[in-house]
Amino acid sequence: MTAYHILAYLAIAFYVILYFGHIFYLLLGYKAALRWKKLGYLEEAHRLSRSDMVPPLSIIADLGLIGGDAVQWVDHVLTQRFPELEVIIMFEAEAEGKAKNLIETFFLRRVDRVYKRVLDSPQPREAYQSDDHRLILIRTQGTERGASLNLALNLARYPLIAVAGRDVSMEDDALICMVRPFMEGETRTPGVMGVELPSQMEKENLLPPRRITRFALMESLRVQLGYLAGAPYMEGPVIAYGSLLLYRKKDLLSVGGFQPDLPVMGAEMDMTLRLHKLMLEAKERYHYVFLPQLVARRPFSQSWAEHFRQSRKQQRGISSAFWAERDMLFRVRYGRLGMFQLPFFWLFINLAPVIGFSAYFIVILFFALGKIGWPVLAAFLLSTIILPAMVGVGAVTAARRELGILRGQGILLYGYAFVTQIWFRQLTTLATIFDPGRWRGRGR
Amino acid sequence: MGDVLFFILLAVVALLAVVAAVLMVRLLKVYYRARRLEIMRSYETMLYAALYKIGPERTLETLFPNPNRKALEEVLLHMGDEGAEGWKENVVTLYELCGFSDKRLRQLRSPLKSRRSDAARRLGRICDPKAVPQLKELLWDSKKEAKEAALYALGRIGTRESLEAMLEALERGDRWTQEKVSEAVEEAGDESRQLLLELLKDENPKRRTFAAEVIGRVGGAEEVIYLEMAMADEEVDVRARAADSLGKLRQHSSRPALLGALDDPAWEVRSQAAKALGSIGEAQDTLRLREALRDREWWVRNNAAAALREMGEAGEGPLVDALWDEDRFARETAAQALEESSMVERIIKEIREGRGVEEDERILHRLAEIGCVGTISQVLSDLPEDEVKAGLIAIFADIQEPALREIIAGAAGKEKTTGRREDEE
User: What is the ipTM of this complex?
Assistant: First the structure.
């Protein structure tokens, strides 16, 4: 066996390991979905919405990040079936117009809100409140998103906290379904997420009209149903972010709140690791929960430029979070997470696209130079085409079975699922590598 | 080239074969489902007609000598779900006679968790009281799905024995179990009230806490005395829940116990007692609530202020009084409650209508003096330029609060501009 063969086999092994990892998580995700179905989350929702025992919830949102009509958004959240909730909306000068609308529509009155200042946070400039105290509008000035979240945490009166992301629109009964894991006491639940879909999907949840959005949807389904849903079985997920995340306020306070100088996405990602750290240091039995059930919708990318911009932002968030918690790497006290999952993520997030493209390059080059035969090339192509296609198709099948979406677009659908895994993710990751601002957060 | 073409064709044929097999399976599934539904419909018609008239034994002998067992069980479970009075016992008996009960009871010991939970859910749907002892054991299963199913089944059965079994699960201490047990207790009606009162005397603090909480939802005036006794419990949680429940029951007779609880060493109890007194709304309690505004714990102060606010006019006096309290926290909490009760707007309305008194101006001045200028700023900026506004600005002349100064400066600027325009006109 020559050195060329060894390199080609290594290339094959890389792809086989990578995609068997994906398939493994997909199966775990499927197992999780079956389990949630058996526990009857949806069926219990109606009953729970009338119960006194459901812990009350504070929803935090940034007015600048609420897309479309903010009044409609707030109205929709306030009409969610949930026994007791409050909505805390933070805003800065740029969202002045939207704030004025909210104040007028909900008859908000300016008050001097007295609160328990547990976390270090800036002072609110102005506070407005509805007569029933369910809607609170807070003006801040020149505050980073992370710091603004901490201020909202100080102001929140309730034991559960939901953080709403950019342009999110909540599904009916999303909150009542997401609250249940916090009520179940066998293991501690530091955070709960759920499936999010593009708001641009056609009627009856068919594929969105634009091609880029379709690709983004396919990749998102893989991440959600193939990684986030299955990861809790493996003490994960390493990094979690989403349009709607629920936490326990006590846990957030125990880790000192969100990183003040990060944007919302970065702060959430960093929070995942810090909560892992908190639980592992306290030797608690815990698991994050990802409900394989639709909880929110948000607009997915409509153009390549937008897509790359979002991916870069996401990568920056991941890098900042990893860098901030780098002391967890190779530490036995952080268990499987510190010893395997984090190093694996570091490697794959930063090096996978480079290794992947180099593998393609060398195998094709060696074949062209006649250093390896066609059986090796065929094996390589099989591992780089068939396996990713299986992952893509598996994610779509899971979405159809578990979420009841994307029904009736057979060949087109599986075509997208197939193609997305072959080049879309790789291209996206590669584009983010050349982002000059990628390591900006590291100096913190 | 020929080889390559052969392999491509082979791959295409294989793909087509897979697609054909999938389609065939789906087709068969649809066919069998339709057939089963048809059978179930006919069984259901027969059962509804015969079960009541000729009883379960004869129904089985005459109408179902050789039934499709799966379909029959589904129909019986469906009838169990409906749970109509008069039918229930017949359905349970027929379920037993068919041997389904024994089979499902055996399955409760299956090594497969899915089988255990499925069996428990079925027994729960049929409401078979004989299954309670085994379901009780399943509550301590190692798998969550099985425990959950046992809880569901016991709740559905709803007899005293099953309720008692469920109460044992409270030992787990999680909110979800408490929720399920409380649902069952509420559905059980009056019988459960006695059970809760017994539970209030239980040795286990988790059970006492649960009882103290649920009595607030299902109890009435008769239970107040027991909750008052629970206010002397050694466990903080029991005392806090009892105080909360007393607030929900709103009985004036429970005031002394709640007033006493305002001196409890645990802040959880003090804050719940303050909230409960607010719900009862007796004017005599305002002074004690006013004192609670000086409590060292934020939640107690917050609840006391909210309680005084809820009391309306009766609570307003003590809140105004607290604006001059030497304790900064008491002052600010009272100010927030007054702002929330629209006091500032009311005072300004009275001033505008010429009904304002010196005391009103004193309150506004004090609010601004202690830095609570949120509502004042809002109202000032909303006011038209007139004598009233000028008068208000004069009241705040000596106050250096930056936010207020900003508003006043803005108003003064506007006034000047308006004046100049008038001159020009």
Answer: 0.77
